[in-house]
Amino acid sequence: MTTTNRQSLTGFKSILLVGTSFTIGLAIGIFAVFAIQNSKSLNDQSTYESARGDKQQSSNNRDGVLENAVEFGQFQQIFEQGSTAEHYRALYTSLASASEQELNEWWNQSKKIERESNRKLAQIVILRNLTSKNPRQALQYLDDVSKFQLDELLVTVFSEWAVTDLDHAVDAAITLAGSRRTTALHAILEARDDLPDTERREIAVRLDGENTFFKLASKKKAEQNIVEPKVSWRILLDDNVDDSLQTESLAIVAEAWHAQVGFEVLSKIYSDIEDSRSESDLVNVIAQVAPAGALKYTIGLADEREQLILSRTIIREWARTDARAALATISTFEPSSLTSNLEVDLARTWARTKPNELIENIEAISEELRISPLEIAFAYVARHDPMDALDKLSSVENLVGNTSTIVESIVSEWTQQEPENVTEWVLTNYTREDPQRLTLLREILPFLAQKDPNHAFELALEQPAPSRSYEAEYYVVTTISEEGNIELAKELLPRVRKNSQPYAYGSVAADMVDEGQTSEAIELGKELEEPDQEFFYSTVFLRWSSKDPQNLFESLEDLPSSSIQSQAAVRLIRMNNYRPIFSDDQIERARTFLSAEDKADLE
Predict the structure, then answer these.
(1) Per-residue b/e over 229-241, b at no fewer than 16 CB within 10 Å?
(2) Where are the domains of the chain?
(3) Which residue in 130, 303, 440, 582 has the fewest CB atoms around it within 10 Å?
């Protein structure tokens, strides 16, 4: 079956912690993914609380809990005492007989509730009541709610609407776009699980969401067979839904299967799941439960590729939560290229998730592997406090051979925040002759050019020319041009040192072509000495032919010299060989502009 990439799973840990029974775990886990069940659970709990109202009344009265409807807008009176279940009951009691107008007023008042959980609860109850009276009005209320709450409230509206007026609920869902339509479809299909599958599938087709129907159908079958995880696994793999779209369900089944067969489920995941992201997510589910056992299992596998992929996935997941324990386990394995790879993955993950901890414990990492994770860790620290990162540098100087690349990682992050300050720091701490100074300034100057282009350019000219690579001013001029200040870039070009001139001129001219200044770009080349012009024009024609080849073809006659015309024609003919856009007659016309030498080269 086909698979597609998806975003990394979030919330697997919460799925894994819910319940001890895997049957319950499946239901709750999927409920956590699809907000429809959240909405249902509110209704169910409210019904349950109402049903036992008489039994609780005397006790609740003693505790001072609200039993009767409160006056309009008195949310504080509802939420200031009692449990969440009692808040449900008070809200339903207060809103049960409210008119549309009153519900509208309650809704407006609910926006002022400061505590998010209370506001969400109140709005769900209000919307559910309003939907039973005027669902279209309820739907309109969602136009101004937070995007983070939108899905849950959409579920509230459409799960209620689907029960009271299915046809109009479907019609309304059709008017929605993108994820809103998908959420509405989920709500409708979940709320109307009393309908035959044929009818539910027809609804899904109308809403361009047949995959959603298949996904829910597979989920239901998998849930029914969870006592036999192997069967549930095959149901999910053999359906018409991409595996990447139902990784949450697969994860719950994998956990249940792990309880039965142990870590062999990791090999099942490896062999059955084609999408690498989904495979990683599913392996992480098992790694979160028992990382040491999972890692030891994979180390013993005979298939080297399976061993490498599974063990690296597990060690990265483990390093996020307890890198030191993971490292201790690696140290018990016989040294090999695999254990070295695992240590590298662990150290880099540790650096990204807990950079300060990695820095403090860098001695635990093999000496030859320390530099890369330290570069990552110090960059993360510098992102929040560059001076703190520099202060910490002394703690590792004696533990690595050279800290220059670590300094570069700090400066790289600092530059994006405060180019002026980091420039001053570099000029203060490195002499003009120090090669590290130029290395750091090449990183800094393009960012400084965005804020103070003239100062950046003058500073670049003061730096010595490198033995290789462009002079520093090249990076400044190209940045100025890319930022849209082409006129200033053109003014500065004659002052660029000779070695970098053709490249700087070519880069600025290419930006001019992007802005439609093709004639001016060609004219700019006249400022260069003849040996440098060939590179310049090749740069211009490369950009021009890529952006608007037809325009370049039509401009051949207007180019200032026969040699330039020939160079442009060569570019068009070669481009047409791998991206045909011109007719045979047009190519023949382009050939008439070729010099004898270029014509021979093409043949």
Answers:
(1) beebbebbbebeb
(2) 52-133, 149-208, 360-414, 418-544, 548-603
(3) 303
Over residues 303-319, the mean pLDDT reads: 96
Asked if residues 79 and 96 have their Cβ atoms less than 8 Å apart, the reply is: no
Class of CATH domain 418-544: mainly alpha
Q: What distances in angstroms separate CA 430 from CA 314, 393, 462, 536, one per listed residue?
A: 43, 16, 14, 35
Distance, in Å, from the CA atom of 337 to the CA atom of 319, rounded to the nearest integer, reads: 19
- 86 vs 67: CA distance, rounded Å: 9
Rounded to 5 degrees, φ, ψ at 422 are -70, -30
Please give the pLDDT value at position 486. 96
Handedness of CA 535, 536, 539, 540 (dihedral sign): negative
Report the distance separating Cα 325 and Cα 471, nearest Å. Answer: 48
Amino acid at 161: W
Q: Which residue has the tokens 């095959």?
A: 234
As a whole number, mean pLDDT of residues 76-104 equals 82
| 132 exposure class (CB count in 10 Å sphere: 0-12, 13-18, 19+) | middle
Per-residue DSSP letter, 298: H
- Note the pLDDT of residue 73: 55
Query: Exposure string (b/e) for 417-429, b if CB count within 10 Å is 16 or more?
Result: eebeebbebbbee
- Mind giving me the DSSP string for 512-573? HHHTT-HHHHHHHGGGS-HHHHHHHHHHHHHHHHHH-HHHHHHTGGGSSSHHHHHHHHHHHH
What is the per-residue pLDDT for 500? 94
Comparing 22-36, 115-129, 486-500, the range with the smallest average pLDDT is 22-36
Give the pLDDT band of residue 44 (cuts 50, 70, 90). Answer: very low
Contact between residue 525 and residue 505 where contact means Cβ atoms under 8 Å apart: yes
DSSP H or E segment with residue 323: helix 304-330
